[in-house]
Design a protein that fits this description.
single chain; 6 strands
C-alpha cells in the first residue's frame, strides 16, 4: 500500500474524524463560491497556510454543514469554517 492510496481531501472527512495535513493544492479555481470576489486557488491555498493548514499539522472535522454548507474544522486551538471547495485543496492522511 502506498501513501497516495491512503490520502484523501479534507472535504471528504466525516464529522469527528481527524487527520494530518499532507499537502495543499494551489490550483487556479475559477467558479464556485467566492470566485466573484477574485479569489483563485493559489490565494486560497496561501490563506489556508496562513491560518495553520500546513503539512504535518493535525486537524479534526467538527461539523459538516447541511446541503453543501460550510465545514467546521479544528486546527490547533482554533476553529475555522471552510467552504467545501477550500477544504478540497487540503490533502490529508486520515487517522
Amino acid at each position: 500500500m502506498t501513501l497516495a492510496s491512503t490520502l484523501t481531501t479534507l472535504d471528504t472527512l466525516a464529522a469527528g474524524q481527524g487527520g494530518t495535513v499532507i499537502h495543499l493544492t494551489p490550483t487556479a479555481l475559477q467558479g464556485g463560491a467566492g470566485a466573484g470576489a477574485g479569489i483563485n486557488g493559489v490565494d486560497v491555498a496561501r490563506r489556508l497556510m496562513e491560518l495553520g493548514f500546513v503539512p504535518g499539522e493535525r486537524i479534526r472535522m467538527l461539523r459538516r454543514g447541511l446541503q453543501g454548507g460550510p465545514l467546521a474544522i479544528k486546527v490547533g486551538q482554533s476553529t475555522f469554517a471552510l467552504r467545501r471547495f477550500e477544504a478540497a485543496l487540503v490533502s490529508v492522511k486520515p487517522e
